[in-house]
Amino acid sequence: MAGVLMALALLHRRPDDLWLNEYWSLSGARICECTTADLAMLSFGVSELQLLPPPEWTSALLAAALRLAELPPVGPMPALETSSASQGDGGPGRPPGDRSFGMTLQLLLHKLTGSGTAPGRHLQPRASVGPASLPSAGIGRRQIRSLPAALGKFLPHSSRWNGNDQVSASGYGGIWGGSRISSLAPLPTIPLTEQRLPAPSSASASGTASSSSTGGDDSESDSGCGVSKADGNGTETNRPLNSAYDMENIFGGGGPETSSSIAELVLEPVQALWDGLQRATAAVSSAWWRSRRASELVTVAYNLTAAGMSVEAVWLERFLLAMRPCLGDLSGDDLHCLLVVAAEAMSRGNLRALEVGMSRDWQAALFARMDGINWALQGQHLIGCLGSISVLGLRPPAPWVRRQLRSLQPGLQFLPTAALVELGGVLPGLPLYYEGETGPSLNTGAGPAPISAGHMDPWIRERVWLERWLAEYRATVSERRATMEAADLLAVIAGVAAVMAALQPWATTVAITPGFNPPVYMASSPPALSTSSSTSREDVASLLLPRSSEVSYAEWRQGMVDAVAARLREASLAALCEAWQVLADATSGAHQQHQQLEQGDVADAMEAAGHLDGLRELVVSRLAVYHGQLSTSDVAPVLSSLAAAGLPLPAATLDALLTSVQPLLPALTSSELVTVALSLVRLSYKPNLAWQAAFCAASRRRLGLMTPSQRCSLLVASASLGLHLPDPWVKDFFAVSERGLGEQLDGMQLANLLWAVSCLASEPAGSWLEQWEYASMPRLRELGPNMLAVVLKVRRSGWLLGGQLAWALVLAMEPTVCVENRCRRRYMDEGLGIAAPLACLGCGCWGPVSPRRLRERCERNDGFLKPYIYA
To answer: Where is this region: Disordered (predicted)?
Structure first.
């Protein structure tokens, strides 16, 4: 059932809703029976087809994934000699439906040692069989040398196998398998089913059994070879020369005891090798199965996150704790996906779950696992892991970060362009060095510390390496600047500038002893000239490519700025907005860095901020003179991206942009109109009257098509901007919103809606106020103290609300009896024109505050409501 949804996802065929409803009901009932592979396939189908399963189905999927994640880790697989209890592919310790890797290696060993098994045969543990049920001698007459006959007494005897390669009491392979044994000389042969080996327990038992089979002194042990013996009918039989027993008989061996000792001496290393191979294959199989199981669980969480399904904090906490023992089995891709899930949860505010789930022990295991992965061919996953670590606020040790960058350096020039751009944004958030990781002369203020040719401080060597690594990164990006977009170029410029500003100027604090010649590879870098030593030449030079020192940082930056200017001239409006977003993020990071740096490093931070100012002016100038064709679908994304940047735009630029948007307002949808209004609020820009009239006309036609939440957001945004709404627009709003006032609005939206109505309308109809009161009554506990401010604001406008709402608010906030009595006395003493329950509410929420002072504050400053208004 899980494979069906995955196949549809691979074919990009979305089923109809009727089929999906039946599928959710059927699969939800059996989801507890799914394996980790089934859950991974289900989550892949949901994510790839962008489906919205019922909440019950999603909860069942998450519960099944958590149950499998919390199972104890899979131990080592049982060895071959103890695996007879398992049945087929469904035995314990094996992945159902998959051939064991250990059995595959064992079959390969059978082939190498000479036993004959048809290609592709799967050995199945069965009960032991006797000679009567063995295949005839004519089966499989392959001229392949089998294992020596004496090996049977040393190989495991608890397993019994069917097929051409079987394990019986006599050993493996062709002992009972129906193949002939060829010797070096053309000797007569007999079918193997007529051969008899000594019993595994002892050689004497074999002699006893063979002597008793013929009776008396007329027969000897069958272990002799190369000599013609007579059977019961007097027929001469020749046995091949193929065992230690036969060799002993030829050279005059003393008896079966000596034969057994020689066989043990010869075959004991073989048995030890075989036992070691069994243990190794069992360990490999167990590790492979643990890795696959953990990878599939991470896939489930990642696919659900990619599908936009939020998980509860409790589930996330338990899942992260359950994945702690499995971190050592995850690949680089799996670690990247797991950290993306954690970073997405942090953006939703699940900080408590992350603090518990990602403990210090969890982080130590994560860093240790990342140290053990070869990132040479998966550098993009390493960059993704480092980016998620930076977003989560984890602080790994600086030497660990430098080790990751070292492993990334040989493949820098092979990384995709998107990975290089992401790396530029990740670098400023990584702890590249400790705060106290500086030279002695930097802290003491002493003169330059001389460096001899035979000594270099470790911190200087690390700084040299970091500078050269940045030079190599800059050179790699510079080679691809012709194919990069303006936003990508700006992201790299801002990231490198932040790292360079954080590096303290240390080159002037180090002096070179006389007679020291710096190496050639450092000749073009002034910091490197003063910090080289003969002992570190090979260490640093081995990690560098020749082209990394061809261009200085100033020259590189100027070349990148020129490339940005060339890209902006031909960029679309969406590309310009994306570039503005990148610069806004870089500006915010520069301000934070400026606050964190010490006094001596402020100059570098200010210089980096000045470079960002020049780039912002470049983008703003292109936005102001943009003459491209603006489509209807570009209006909302462009304004929302500019607003989300949080960086103020010049008024002239916004005027030019909104002038080009005004003719497109009638064609905008309801959601796009709401987005435009909220974007203007975040930009703190009030359009001119002509633009307001066009916007009101376009939005009035869409009022009936909007949802209650959209109408509420539109009215609150209009009130925040101070727009002039005509009376017909307000009347239509009351008529439309009264019917579904309490359908989709929460307590905060209801409070903001009442505030917006009090700002924009003279007085609403009594029926609308009554509907608002009925809608707010079930949500009283969601309103909070801001509801008091809104009610005071409304009552100041002369509106009358029912006393039931006021008393219900008092009961919801549950003020103490003494506070209520004190409020009543103050109400009587001050003679306020507000209801006593509202005064009780104020004291219950904000403590013993005078109702008169509260009302005066509300009348004096309406702006204290802004925290409760959409911004």
So the answer is: 77-100, 116-137, 194-250
